[in-house]
Automatic annotation (TrEMBL):
<keyword id="KW-0804">Transcription</keyword>
<dbReference type="InterPro" id="IPR058163">
    <property type="entry name" value="LysR-type_TF_proteobact-type"/>
</dbReference>
<keyword id="KW-0238">DNA-binding</keyword>
<feature type="domain" description="HTH lysR-type">
    <location>
        <begin position="17"/>
        <end position="74"/>
    </location>
</feature>
<dbReference type="GO" id="GO:0003700">
    <property type="term" value="F:DNA-binding transcription factor activity"/>
</dbReference>
<dbReference type="GO" id="GO:0043565">
    <property type="term" value="F:sequence-specific DNA binding"/>
</dbReference>
<keyword id="KW-0805">Transcription regulation</keyword>
<keyword id="KW-0175">Coiled coil</keyword>
<dbReference type="InterPro" id="IPR036390">
    <property type="entry name" value="WH_DNA-bd_sf"/>
</dbReference>
<dbReference type="GO" id="GO:0006351">
    <property type="term" value="P:DNA-templated transcription"/>
</dbReference>
<feature type="coiled-coil region">
    <location>
        <begin position="84"/>
        <end position="111"/>
    </location>
</feature>
<dbReference type="Pfam" id="PF00126">
    <property type="entry name" value="HTH_1"/>
</dbReference>
<comment type="similarity">
    <text>Belongs to the LysR transcriptional regulatory family.</text>
</comment>
<dbReference type="InterPro" id="IPR000847">
    <property type="entry name" value="LysR_HTH_N"/>
</dbReference>
<dbReference type="InterPro" id="IPR005119">
    <property type="entry name" value="LysR_subst-bd"/>
</dbReference>
<protein>
    <recommendedName>
        <fullName>HTH lysR-type domain-containing protein</fullName>
    </recommendedName>
</protein>
<dbReference type="InterPro" id="IPR036388">
    <property type="entry name" value="WH-like_DNA-bd_sf"/>
</dbReference>
Length: 309
C-alpha cells in the first residue's frame, strides 16, 4: 500500500539535503527498486532503504510509493527527479569545463572493463608502461560484465566488447579477437563428441561464444561457470574444451587449438570508449593512448598453431 504523504510543518524550512542522497535517489528512480540500486552501488538494500527513509524525513514528503515489485515515484517524486537531473547535468557541465582546463598529466582515471581483460591485458601490459610514462596518473579498475554508464560518470574510460549506439561518446575499435575451440594438449586427439565442454553463463549478459558453442557443438556442457576467468582456468586444468579467443593460446603452452571441423567462430571486437568532452583531457588521453598501444599484443597473438591430427 502506498504511504500517505507527510505534510511539511508550517514555518519550518527543510534541512539541508546531502548531494549523495540526491544521487542515490536518482539511482533508485532509474533502477526502479531499492535492491537494484543497491546492487549498482555495491551496498546493502537495507542501507538504501534507510537512507531514502531519512531523505524523505528531511524533505518531509514522500517521494516513493513502496510496492511489492519495487518502488514507484510519487507525483512529487517525479518533479523532484526532474530537478535533480537538472542539477546533475549542471554539475556534469561544471566538471567537464574544469577538466578542459587541465594541463598536467595527473589525477585519477576510472577504467571500466571485464576482469579477464584486466588480468590478462591491462595489469601486466598497460599499467607498467603507464606508471613509467605518467607516474602522477592513478587508476581505479572497475571490473564487471555490466556496461558502466559513462554519461553519468560511473567511469571515464571503458573497454567494451561492443560499440556504443547512443550518447555523446568517442569510440575506437582496437582489437579483433577470433575465437576457436581450445583444450588442454592431453585432449588434442579427441573428437567433438568425446570431449567434455565448459560453458559460461553470465546471467543477463549475452555471450556470443556460448551461443556458438550451443549451436555447433550441440552437447550439454559438463561444467558451467559464471566468468571467463573461471572458464579459462577450467580448460587449463584439463576439465574440458571451450570456444575461446585464440589469443589465450599465448597464456599457456599446454593449450591447443582443436581442429573439429566446426564453422569459424565469432570474432570479438574490443572497443575503447570515453565521453567526447573528456577525450583530450591530459590524464584521459594518456590512459587511452597506453591502452590503444599496449593491447595491440592481442592482435599479434598466434594466428595459427600446429593442430593435432
Amino acid at each position: 500500500m502506498a504511504r500517505p504523504r507527510a505534510p511539511a510543518p508550517a514555518g519550518r524550512p527543510p534541512a539541508d539535503v546531502d548531494w549523495d542522497d540526491l544521487r542515490l535517489f536518482l539511482e533508485v528512480a532509474r533502477a526502479g527498486s531499492f535492491s537494484a540500486a543497491a546492487r549498482k552501488r555495491g551496498i546493502e538494500q537495507s542501507t538504501v532503504s534507510r537512507r531514502m527513509a531519512t531523505f524523505e524525513r528531511t524533505l518531509r514528503v514522500a517521494v516513493f510509493d513502496r510496492l511489492p515489485g519495487g518502488s514507484m515515484l510519487t507525483p512529487l517524486g517525479e518533479q523532484l527527479r526532474r530537478h535533480v537531473e537538472s542539477m546533475e547535468a549542471g554539475a556534469d557541465r561544471l566538471v567537464r569545463e574544469a577538466n578542459g582546463h587541465e594541463r598536467e598529466v595527473e589525477g585519477l582515471v576510472r577504467l571500466a572493463l571485464t576482469e579477464s581483460i584486466a588480468v590478462h591485458g591491462v595489469i601486466p601490459r598497460v599499467l607498467p608502461v603507464l606508471a613509467e610514462r605518467h607516474p602522477r596518473v592513478s587508476l581505479h579498475l572497475l571490473t564487471s560484465y555490466e556496461a558502466a554508464d559513462l554519461g553519468h560518470r560511473e567511469a571515464e574510460i571503458a573497454v567494451r566488447f561492443f560499440r556504443p549506439r547512443s550518447g555523446d561518446l568517442v569510440a575506437a575499435r582496437i582489437v579483433a579477437l577470433p575465437t576457436v575451440p581450445v583444450a588442454h594438449r592431453k585432449h588434442a586427439k579427441r573428437s567433438r563428441d568425446e570431449l567434455d565442454w565448459i560453458g559460461v553463463d553470465l546471467g543477463r549478459i549475452p555471450a556470443v561464444e556460448e551461443d556458438y558453442q550451443k549451436r555447433h557443438v550441440r552437447k550439454a556442457p559438463k561444467l558451467v561457470v559464471s566468468s571467463y576467468i573461471a572458464q579459462l582456468e577450467a580448460v587449463r586444468a584439463g576439465l574440458g574444451a571451450a570456444v575461446l579467443p585464440r589469443s589465450v593460446l599465448d597464456l599457456d603452452d599446454g593449450l591447443v587449438e582443436l581442429d573439429l571441423g566446426l564453422p569459424a567462430g565469432p570474432v570479438l571486437e574490443l572497443w575503447l570508449v570515453t565521453p567526447r568532452s573528456l577525450r583530450h583531457v591530459p590524464r584521459i588521453a594518456a590512459v587511452w593512448d597506453a591502452l590503444e598501444e599496449q593491447l595491440q599484443f592481442l592482435n599479434g597473438a598466434r594466428r595459427a598453431r600446429a593442430r593435432p591430427r
